[in-house]
């Protein structure tokens, strides 16, 4: 039996007539290059744009537009021609390809694949993944009745064409790659990350794959700074009453009070709408198509919900999340870690920001000691109800001394911020009003991040599901309440960015005026942009990027790649 026939017996069956089950030839290329990369892109639907991918897309623009004519196999005998953007599939192999160019001469077809860079100086003329991709295209052409003798690669950077010899060894490698990817997809097994590979630093999916972070728990040693730079896109806040967000070409336009503000759609990461502002249908469609979530708030800053597109396609992540959520033991384990991290981070914030003029001495030592004791107890809680009690004890201690972090007022007594206890629904004083707004902003951030990595933000482990409540987002944000939300409140008070005159009272309720809310949101976003050192991995990233890393690490833990979920615990 020839080698190809033997390999075909090992191919998992494909589903005839269902194009989504056919493996793209480009993914076969990726599998040879890095199995984990191919799995993340094809099976889990992950993608991250980079300079290299954008340049590659530009170099394919002409061939992707199509053109030319490819004669049918039975009419190809005397034909000479070239066709661009040819899509064909092979049900026998279970693969599909959009071929950049197919040249036809004297009845022989030749697939030509375009690459953006220069020809590599290697013995085979091209790297194996690219040759495998061309071989897959050739085999598709053969299965559609064409005679193929060789393939070719065109390198735009050096303007060179490199022939690809379709020998038995390359064909066997191609079939092996197809079988490997289809088997992994059928089994739902994400391949392990590469170890110390030089391929990782330039990979656009390094921040999604987290190769060194995942391997750290197996082999130790600090990870390399592989993570790509933070996404330059930033949130867009629409706060002016009766403002209208609309679309103009590839730009978003905000019409508010007779003024117009424009920004490119590509520079927007998410949109937050406050109060009676509106979004046009074309703008909403463009945002959903670009997977840019829209969060809705009341005028006072209460988080109402969010609008997203079709959402993340990685069902396996949500399956793992639901399995864990129905496992009481695992829920308790995760809840212990969340509460312990929250109390420890509250203690750290209090220790760092306790103001000397408020008196350090025994009060500070007593507060820090009690919080340390609560954090230690949380690690051994025997049930969720007991854990809720411990969390309440920690919050009572922390907020009892929260005022010690606020600067002494300067000037008249009217400029003084007073805080005695935490209250909400509605908040009755300026400090509580800012805390409530900060927690709403943080809930929006974690809701969007959880959705973006494939998790269901409404199904949690510690906070139980309730209609309209993003329980998982509330879970994940617990350790970040002190480090992001509370620290933003302390900062705007101590820096004088928000003053008591920026608040309005209605009955027993207190809320920020528009000017004060804008100042606070600016400070909150500035906090997310501040760099921090990850205490586990040792590299420096912005807080915004770290939050995404933590969410992705949770997916790795839920799917069994990590033995434990590493919390963010600044020293």
If you had to describe this structure to a student in words, what would you say it looks like?
The longest helix has 26 residues, at 328-353. This protein has three domains: 3-191, Lambda Exonuclease, Chain A (Alpha-Beta Complex), CATH 3.90.320.10; 234-307, CRISPR-associated endonuclease Cas1, N-terminal domain (Ribosomal Protein L15, Chain: K, domain 2); 315-529, CRISPR-associated endonuclease Cas1, C-terminal domain (Four Helix Bundle (Hemerythrin (Met), subunit A), Up-down Bundle), CATH 1.20.120. Helix content is 43%, strand content 18%. It is α/β, with parallel strands linked by helices and 571 residues long.
Brief description of this entry?
This protein has 571 residues and is α/β, with parallel strands linked by helices.
List keywords for this structure.
elongated; Four Helix Bundle (Hemerythrin (Met), subunit A); Ribosomal Protein L15, Chain: K, domain 2; eight-stranded mixed sheet; alpha/beta; 571 residues
CATH class membership of the largest domain: Mainly Alpha
Low-confidence parts: 13-19
User: What fraction of the residues are assigned to beta strands by DSSP?
Assistant: 15-25%
Enumerate how many helices there are, as a single number.
Answer: 19
Number of spatially distinct domains: 3
Number of strands: 20
CATH superfamily grouping of the largest domain = CRISPR-associated endonuclease Cas1, C-terminal domain
Distance between the termini: 64 Å
Provide mean pLDDT, rounded: 81
- What's the main sheet like? 8 strands, mixed
Radius of gyration: 28 Å
- CATH topology (level 3) name of the largest domain: Four Helix Bundle (Hemerythrin (Met), subunit A)
Helix content: 40-55%
Main structural class: alpha/beta
Shape: elongated
């Amino acid at each position: 039996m020839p080698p190809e026939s033997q390999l075909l017996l090992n191919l998992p069956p494909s589903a005839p007539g269902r194009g989504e089950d056919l493996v793209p030839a480009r993914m076969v290329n990726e599998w040879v290059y890095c199995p984990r990369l191919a799995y993340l892109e094809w099976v889990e639907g992950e993608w991250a744009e980079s300079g290299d991918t954008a340049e590659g897309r530009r170099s394919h623009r002409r061939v992707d537009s199509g053109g030319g004519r490819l004669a049918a196999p039975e009419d190809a005998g005397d034909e000479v021609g070239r066709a661009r953007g040819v899509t064909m599939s092979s049900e026998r192999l279970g693969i599909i390809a959009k071929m950049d160019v197919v040249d036809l001469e004297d009845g022989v077809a030749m697939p030509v694949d375009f690459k953006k860079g220069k020809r590599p100086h290697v013995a085979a003329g091209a790297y194996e993944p690219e040759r495998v991709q061309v071989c897959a295209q050739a085999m598709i052409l053969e299965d559609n009745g064409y005679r193929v003798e060789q393939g070719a690669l065109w390198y735009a950077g050096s303007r060179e064409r490199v022939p690809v010899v379709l020998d038995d060894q390359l064909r066997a490698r191609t079939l092996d790659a197809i079988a490997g990817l289809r088997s992994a997809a059928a089994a739902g097994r994400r391949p392990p990350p590469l170890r110390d590979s030089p391929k990782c630093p330039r990979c656009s999916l390094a921040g999604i794959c987290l190769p060194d972070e995942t391997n750290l728990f197996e082999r130790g040693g600090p990870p390399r700074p592989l993570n790509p730079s933070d996404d330059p896109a930033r949130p867009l806040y629409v706060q002016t009453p009766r403002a209208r967000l609309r679309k103009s070409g590839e730009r978003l336009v905000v019409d508010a009070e007779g003024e117009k503000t424009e920004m490119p759609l590509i520079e927007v990461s998410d949109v937050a709408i406050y109060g009676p502002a509106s979004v046009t249908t074309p703008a909403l469609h463009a945002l959903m198509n670009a997977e840019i979530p829209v969060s809705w708030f009341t005028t006072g800053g209460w988080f109402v919900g969010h609008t997203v597109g079709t959402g993340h396609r990685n069902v396996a992540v949500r399956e793992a999340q639901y399995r864990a959520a129905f496992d009481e033991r695992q829920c308790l384990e995760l809840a212990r870690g969340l509460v312990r991290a929250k109390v420890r981070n509250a203690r750290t914030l209090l220790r760092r920001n306790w103001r000397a003029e408020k008196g350090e001495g025994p009060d500070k030592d007593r507060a820090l000691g009690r919080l340390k004791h609560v954090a230690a107890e949380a690690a051994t809680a025997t049930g969720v109800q007991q854990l809720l009690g411990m969390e309440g004890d920690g919050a009572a201690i922390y907020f009892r001394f929260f005022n010690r972090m606020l600067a002494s007022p300067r000037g008249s007594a009217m400029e003084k911020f007073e805080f005695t206890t935490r209250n909400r629904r509605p908040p009755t004083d300026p400090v509580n009003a800012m805390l409530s707004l900060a927690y709403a902003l943080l809930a929006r951030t974690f809701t969007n991040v959880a959705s973006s990595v494939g998790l269901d933000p409404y199904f949690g482990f510690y906070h139980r599901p309730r209609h309209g409540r993003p329980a998982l987002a509330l879970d994940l944000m617990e350790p970040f309440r002190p480090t992001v939300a509370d620290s933003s409140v302390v900062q705007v008070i101590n820096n004088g960015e928000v003053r008591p005159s920026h608040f309005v009272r209605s009955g027993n309720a207190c809320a920020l005026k528009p000017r004060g809310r804008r100042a606070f949101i600016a400070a909150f976003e500035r906090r997310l942009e501040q760099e921090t050192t990850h205490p586990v991995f040792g590299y420096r990233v912005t807080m915004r990027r770290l939050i995404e890393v933590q969410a992705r690490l949770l997916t790795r833990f839920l799917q069994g790649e990590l033995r434990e979920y590493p919390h963010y615990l600044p020293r």
